[in-house]
Amino acid sequence: MHSETKIKALIELLDDPDEFVFSQVEQELKLIGNDIVPILEYAWGNSFNNILQQRIENLIHQIQFERVLKDLTQWKNSQGRDLLDGALIIARYQYPDLDIGEMERFFEQLVKEVWLELNPNYTALEKARIISRVLFEIYGFSGNKKNFHSPQNSFINHVIESKKGNPITLSLIYLIIAKELKLPIYGVNLPEHFVLAYTILPEDFVDEFLQEDVLFYINPFNGGTVFNEEEIKTFLAQLKIEEEDSFFLPCSNLKVIERILNNLIFCFGKAGVMDKVEELKQLLHIIKS
């Protein structure tokens, strides 16, 4: 256990010109883990040494990134693979100080508002329309068509704040509501798009899906419009993409998080932020391994 005095002494050595000394100090501080971040931030704020500040910034980022790697690994190996938990881990990559409790309270309120309008006797279509009305009319969520390729569209906290997202994050919010209300709605991993399938199956169904299990599809990026299998075929034909069963059938929560990471890799790559691309590829490797 390091004393605060020793930690402060180690931090002061971070600007040592000897690379070996710096490397040893950095490794020792990294081993302390996330608990050291507030001390590092305080040291950064009270320093006028540019080299020390830069090294502290890099160290904080490394510590926080290691935590995201660890949490995503645990999430992947967990039994439930809760979608909100997975999305919040990805959001913490960009926003390490994210208030998880605030996000959870937002969803509790959102789910409650949908639940108050639902009736057990409603048809599947009526239930879907209730979710869409609350999400897109009352809360004002919509697809970010102006800045479609902005990386911010893939971070759940930013989407909640701005009320604008891409197909995957808007679908994600819809899926979290459906999960809490035990409605059999699942993601569908389309090329260049992401939609939802309302099925006849029990909630949390895990065996193999069949096309006849799907009642209809929902497009959250377009305000929750409902469509059918033929429209997916038309969409694929327009893209000149050969049909595959997976383009019509529900996918796992693992695939949803994988799709978010792929979106982020593409968007940061398009923006030329290659250091983030490389780190996000590490996160994607965890999901795919």
TrEMBL record:
Highest rank taxon of the organism: Bacteria
InterPro entries for this protein: SirB1_N
Domain Protein SirB1 N-terminal residue range list: 107-262
Similarity section: Belongs to the UPF0162 family.
Entry protein name: Protein SirB1 N-terminal domain-containing protein
Organism: Acidiluteibacter ferrifornacis
Lineage, highest ranks first: Bacteria, Pseudomonadati, Bacteroidota, Flavobacteriia, Flavobacteriales
